[in-house]
Amino acid sequence: MFLDVVELRDFYDGHLGLLARRMIRRRVRELWPNLRGQSLLGLGYTVPYLRPYRGEAERVLAAMPAQQGVLHWPAEGPNASVLVDEAELPLEDASVDRILLVHALENTEQRAAMMTEAWRVLAGNGRLLVVVPNRRGLWARFDHTPFGHGQPYTVSQLSRLLRDSRFTPTRTVHALYAPPYTSGLVIRSAPALEQVGHRWFTRFAGVVMIEAQKEVYAPRRVRKRVLARARALLPSGRPSVPVPANRDRTA
User: Fold this and answer.
1) Domain of 127, in residue numbers
2) Whole-number pLDDT of residue 196
3) How many independent structural domains does the chain possess?
4) Are strands 96-102 and 167-175 parallel, antiparallel or unpaired?
5) 87 contacts 59 by C-beta, under 8 angstroms
6) Average pLDDT over residues 93-108
7) Following DSSP, what letter does each residue of 29-67 receive, concatenated?
8) Tens digits of per-residue pLDDT, 109-132?
9) Residue 37 covered by a domain
């Protein structure tokens, strides 16, 4: 079940939200350092992570599920957010180059349909980036943050879901190694904890992030194989083309 959009906005305006925004955004930027000339769709509550791309990508759109609610975004310019049914996105096939899912997959009750829609609207050479709470991390154990709601995932669980949804995982990263406390010491030491955790304790990160590529298969040439098999099954010494019944056999 989705959290209300106002709760999400208030979280990201607070100390822990600013910490999560900074740490996760850094990893997103490492995976996608340059989206110049490309289109970017955020599904869920992604606006804290879309902002760096507004002046870079050709088009940035924030799609917010109906059960969550929608807010005007960005505050300082024309609206780029839209209220959607995550199982029926109002976009054409293969119309976006990048899709970012945050606070989406772990909360939706239409997981299969949402992933089908993500596959449909993503371009053939596009990339999907999913951010979900880590089942083994501390952030999934406390419900005073959005990462403590919904279904958390391990790397293997998320990878399997992506493959079942016709995506091929390409890169996996983690973020949020600092505990979800508002202590000034924790906030100040978060960058150092991030470096240590990224090197030694990835399994205990707060979130799992997997980038995946859309699987597009070439049509198989079944007809030729079927014909070849049919010829191979003909009786030995018999012609492959039948002789007409009224042919003059004495000729």
Assistant:
1) 5-215
2) 85
3) 1
4) unpaired
5) no
6) 97
7) HHH-S--BT-EEEEEES-HHHHGGGTTTBSEEEEEEETT
8) 999 999 999 999 999 999 999 999
9) yes
Whether residue 33 lies inside any domain: the answer is yes
97 backbone dihedrals φ, ψ, rounded to 5°:
-90, -30
Q: CATH number for the domain including 163?
A: 3.40.50.150
Give the C-alpha separation, 209 to 100, whole Å: 10
DSSP conformation letters of the chain: -PPPHHHHHHHHHSHHHHHHHHHHHHHHHHH-S--BT-EEEEEES-HHHHGGGTTTBSEEEEEEETTT----S-TTSS--EEEEBTTB-SS-TT-EEEEEEESSTTT-S-HHHHHHHHHHHEEEEEEEEEEEEBTTSSGGG-TTSGGGSS--B-HHHHHHHHHHTTEEEEEEEEE--S-S---HHHHHHHHHHHHHHHHH-GGG-SEEEEEEEE--PPPP-HHHHHHHHHHHTSPTT--SSPPPTT--TT-
Confirm whether 64 is domain-assigned: yes
